[in-house]
Amino acid sequence: ERYYGTFAQEKDEMMNEQNELTQFLKTLKRYKHRLKRQELLTLRGQALHGNIAGAKKGFCVLMEERKMQYE
Question: With contact defined as beta carbons under 8 Å apart, do 58 and 42 qualify?
Fold first, then answer.
């Protein structure tokens, strides 16, 4: 099933955003034992409300503060 026009572009963007969100939530889950509960909830909430870029940046800052390797 192929979509054409702007609807197709919107659908693709939504799918990409959903995949990005899913990947980020999986990453958070992998590192949940290294994050404080409030940090985890904040980053998760940010991502779920559409600010995935901000949540990723916050995650990177926390990992760098703790001198940890992350994916």
Answer: yes
62 vs 56: CA distance, rounded Å: 10
Q: Could you tell me if 43 and 58 are in contact, meaning their C-beta atoms sit under 8 angstroms apart?
A: yes
- The burial class, CB within 10 Å (0-12 / 13-18 / 19+), for 55 is buried
Mention every residue, 6+ apart, whose C-beta is less than 8 A from residue 30.
71
pLDDT tens for each residue of 1-35: 555 666 667 777 778 888 999 999 999 999 999 99
Q: What is the mean pLDDT of the chain?
A: 86
40, 32 contact by CB (below 8 A):
yes
Let me know the angle formed at the C-alpha of 12 by 14 and 71, rounded to the nearest 5 degrees: 70
The model carries a pTM of 0.77
